[in-house]
Amino acid sequence: MPEINVTPLGAGQDVGRSCILVSIGGKNIMLDCGMHMGYNDDRRFPDFSYITQNGRLTEFLDCVIISHFHLDHCGALPYMSEMVGYDGPIYMTHPTKAICPILLEDFRKITVDKKGETNFFTSQMIKDCMKKVVPLNLHQTVQVDDELEIKAYYAGHVLGAAMVQIKVGSESVVYTGDYNMTPDRHLGAAWIDKCRPDILISESTYATTIRDSKRCRERDFLKKVHESIERGGKVLIPVFALGRAQELCILLETFWERMNLKAPIYFSTGLTEKANHYYKLFITWTNQKIRKTFVQRNMFEFKHIKPFDRSYADNPGPMVVFATPGMLHAGQSLQIFKKWAGNEKNMVIMPGYCVQGTIGHKILNGQRKLEMEGRATLEVKLQVEYMSFSAHADAKGIMQLIRMAEPRNMLLVHGEGAKMTFLKGKIEQEFSIDCYMPANGETATVSTNPSVPVDISLNLLKREMALGGPLPDPKKPRTMHGTLIMKENSLKLVSSEQALKELGLNEHQLRFTCRVQLQDPHSDSDTLHRIYTHLKSVLKGYTIQHLPDGTVMVESIVIKVSSSADDANTKVLLLSWSYQDEDLGSFLSTLLKKGLPSGLC
Amino acid sequence: MAAHLKRRVYEEFSKTQVVQIPHEEAPAKKLRLSKPSKSAALHVDLCKATNSTDALQYLLHFARKPVEAESVEGVIRILLEHYYKETDISVRLKIASLLGLLSKTQGFGPDCIVDDAINALGNEKSHQVLAQLLDTLLVIGTQLPESPTIRQRLIEVACKHLSDTYFGVRNKCLQLLGCLGLVDAPLNKDGEGPGPLTGVVRDVQSIISDYFGDQDPRVRTAAIKAMLQLHERGMKIHQIIYEQACRLLSDDYEQVRSAAVQMVWVLSQLYPESIVPIPSSNEEIRLVDDAFGKISHMVSDGSWMVRVQAAKTLGSMLQVSPHFLEQTLDKKLMSDLRRKRTAHERAKELFASGEFSSGRKWADDAPKEKLDSNTVYLIASGACGAFVHGLEDEMFEVRIAAVEALCQLARSSASFAEKCLDFLVDMFNDEIEEVRLQSIHVLREISTHITLREDQLDTVLAVLEDKSRDIREALHELLCFTNVSTKECIQLALLELLKNLNKYPTDRNSVWKCLKFVGSRHPTLVLPLVSELLSTHPYFDTPEPDMDDPAYIAVLVLVFNAAKSCPTMPALFSDHTFRHYAYLRDSLSHLVPPLRLPGRKQVCGLDPVDSGSGSGSVESAQLFLQQSLNRVSTIQNLEAPGAQDLLDFTIRDLLRLGELQTELAGAADFCATYLRCQLLLMKALQEKLWNMAVPLCLKQNVTATAAAQQILEETYKLEFLYSGLDSRQVATIHHVRLQAKALQLVLTARTRQGLDPLLSSCEKFLQDVDSFQRLFLTELPHLQDSFVDKLLELMPRLSSSKPAELVKILQTTLRQSGLLQLKLPQQIHRATATIIEPTGESDNPLRFTSGLVVALDIDATLEHVQDPQSSVKVQVLYPDGQSHVIHPKPGDFRKPGPDRHRLITQVYLSHTAWTEPSQIEVRLLLAYSSSSSSSAAKEGWSDSVDGVPPPEAAVEGTIQFSKPVKVFIMPKPARR
Questions:
Q1: Are B360 and A212 a contacting pair at CB < 8 A?
Q2: In sequence order, what DSSP letters do the residues of A448-514 get, joined into one string?
Q3: Domain named Metallo-beta-lactamase: which ranges (chain A) (predicted)?
């Protein structure tokens, strides 16, 4: 039985550092290559030594596929390709390819320039790495090599996020990356056709959540921001530079315009400019509304949102600031948070998921005193709000995707173990399919049942068709006789005559003969006749002939009668049948062994 | 075979000719020439064609021209003959399609070619051509609805070809079965023994349903469509189909799923109450509930077409049980519905415990208790959350469909309306305006069932700041019909409306109207607020507010309307409030109701009838109207003394009545206008000029001519400006018009010398009389003793007499004819238009470079206009007398309510340079087309030669029906 092996190097019962190895049909594919937000040491990157102890990865991997540009899905890419060494193709969608290097560069700057780490990848490495990228279009089937093909589907989540179908022969795996089943203010919903993959590898960040309608969420968010602004407070919204931030920007922008609010909205970090530029460009990847109205006005050309300068944080009066990163673990958002944390008028709204160990996670869990670097403690007085804005599919969304794709097996990654267990149970019960949730380094193995295509000769098919009705009926499988020839990697089903001819073999007949002794006082010819009449009465619907040369033929079975040498009353019947008539022949022999009924004349 | 056919065709030709010649001697030749030419030409062409491409070209060319009914048969024979000879598939295909086209020809009975077509079908090898031939048979079959034998044959043919391997053939066969399958009888009953393949008697339905499982999705779709077709033709679909249709809901192909949704819906409407078992459990539910659950499931389908279909369908499943209905709004996880019926309590508990986090609080999703996983389904296979999904859908088409479905369901179920309120209110924040607007409209429609809570009202009112006027006005409309629960809500609403008024002053009327309804709906809630609203104080006098402040008026409208059904309220009013009441009651009588104010009779000063209840006053006004008309009808002769005065007074009364009673404004106006026509006619006839000699009256007849002209115009207004006229009234109007025309004729005869123009106008007049008689033949008995009546008596004499004589007769008839009594119109509404924008108040000229264009935004409301898209025009009149008529696009009209339209459009202005800014006039015109209108208008123009200028800015066939608005513009010379 062929098998598909899936091994997560990251994101197995965990969030962050997504990196999943799939081996399917003899091909090895790496899905995503991300970093972990919670760690600053080696644990930050996936453990590539799992693949090979030393040396380059190129010969072990057939391709690398990046689902979207979030760092926990692409952060380790330059490290893997340039420092560990990989020269094969890297696949990602066009927007991902455009935005990914910006984020990587930002990541590098923070790590190297701010924290002063050494032995980290350089700008040049990012560039070199991006040169290996092959862009993908939605629904475009790309042949990686002769057997391996991949195809991207729209995933929502962030601009350019894609789900990928990986196919070798008739075996296939779908990897969802991060996806969102409900559309938001700037992106549509994920969609996949009924591709029935062998394994669906799905994220499960919100495995135990069913969220309220997004409209409630939006309204709550706007209300909170509005109230805080009216009080004169400052609102900090930590976001990842790209993705959620754009949605919230559009939301606030339209709200500001509608309510005619004057308080300034700032967006930190310089990369916004560049990123917004790409958002304006890749209009086809956004939702219906933006696609339809961009001719009049591109929604990403903000009127109220201005770039942030560090000095603004001390300005008096209300303001809204979007700052990176989203989990308050470093950078500008953390700085601003420190500044504003002391005032209870201020507010921080966490719009998404926070990994354990980050400050975001701590304050969300109600910690009011934080230990900062250098033993200082920070008292948190400002209001902490949580709005689930991260565009991951919730439990219902995951189930919906399963229903859409109809996979044969399910595999959960990118979520917390406990929550996964819950969802796993649900999936197994609802769809009655197997569900796996391997931890990092664990391998899940799924044996597949690939269909083997066989060429059938047209003559044989036609002959069979002629036998039983014109249309094949899917409800009734039919058996047919033929010979399967395996020759040079191709399978052929032909009629046996043709097979003999092709293989240059002589036809051999296999006949069974059998003697049956019978007590019968009549003469040979009479006995034969009695047998004939007997069989005629028993076997209705068969052709039974009494041939003049002293034999009875039932179909192709020959019956002869001769008297035994010692006793004239004991007749010896000679039955002979060919292999094809085995059933009928054995039936006849048992029938005749019972003897002839006496009432026959 | 072919030769034989050819001979038959020729024979047929000669036969038809032979038949026709004796019938009509003279035109026979013509027929003979034209008829064979068509088919013969085709024949020649086809014979000439050396290869199939040529033949195809000829056929394509031939198909462009229509064929007369009588030559169809010949053409068909030729085509068939060629068909048998032809070896090329494409040509045969074309011929087959031509056969279908030809048999659609009006007046041609296609039964004669059925045999040939079936025959051809039997010999055909190509699948495409087979499909086309079946299509032709389908056309023939639908052309011959009442021929059971042919039908039977066609059905047999279809059944025979159902087993074809090509999907197109199977499609067509199914279509044929769907369109022709016998509704009542099972298939093989009268077919004289079953066919060789079908051993048992089977009906059409089971045959079609066999193909639900076909391997080709197109065939599956066709099978469902055929079944739906059967349903449309009145055949009762068996319930067995339900299960099969449900299976198709999970088909791989969207068109199949979409059709299956329809099928399931149809069955759910047919057998709502039958019981179906639930697989994997031993319980049973009603079929309609089951179907509802299944279709709800489709709202989260992968294809948006299916989602739209499903969402729409849900709206019409009104028989569904309430608890199923409510599930559609529930996205929260809950135990499977079916279990809920037996373990209701437990399910409720589960729901309440909230297994899943809402996502609003951090970490509230830590699983609190382990649930029995047997009872919890994540994708509830029932109706769970269908609408929540639908309303959040990516495509706005789905969202709109879902909103509409919600509306339909909510209208029939009060409890559901209550539940869906939150969701609809949420939709007010949708990103697409259409959706927002639609949800506001929907909320209005279901508002009878609901009472808004404060927080909901808050969300609703937030939309008042929306930029779009449509949205704001829809919201005003909604507030008119909304019930609120507390006095705080009233206060909130008032506050927001005043804010709205402040921000968008043009919303004034709409806001006032809205407050009127809010007040009259919630008198008891307004009562505790009165002193606060009017800022009165128990001890101190407060300053009198400014009477012209729209906000103050708004408050007063609210209070007065509340006071109407709350007699204790006026006691809280201060003195100036009573004065303001009197003022507003008079100036804004449509917004301020009559109040019974104690000891204030002299202030309100209304007659006792009017101060009665609302409906009573309408009745009394109607009575008054009738009495006025009766009074007028006593005038027998136009020359009776005092008649003019009576008319004068009556007109005045009616006009005032129309102002006071908005319900009767249309009727009163209509009557008044009619009477004015009569009055004018009367005056014109009583002028002294009639007694003068012809040469002397050149100067004096100016008034009479003007009167005639005016009457004509008024009659057009009467006819086209008012809706709801019956034919009797139209006849009366035409009658007045005829009188006016007669008057005009008489006047022309008196002033103009020369016989020629007179002769032609006499002729025209006689034509008019004639057409009047034709148009109103049924109404003539009611016009006893009228002008026309007399005229028609004299008709034979008139038509033969000389113009001078005719004029004389007309003159006497006119003077002798009595006043035609007007029947009191029942439901008459006057079409009105008000231009809201531009307001005409701006002093800042609109500057633009001459020769270029500037766009002027026009916003107008139209009431009681039928078909405004074609009839309403915008006219722009420049100071130099130039006028432009602009036809607004159909898309510029919106329909915010019954009998109301809104025109929001842009007109483009351009002019050469002016030295200083000047005003242009913009107005709306109502275009009409009357059979005699064009000639009448022309007459008007030609008459203008002798002194009377045409009325200002008259446009042919249009009525001005809005007040003109002046706009300051300034085209500047272009700078070089």
A1: yes
A2: --PPPP-EE-HHHHHHHHHHS-SS--TTS------EEEEETTEEEEE-HHHHHHHHT------EEEE
A3: 16-229
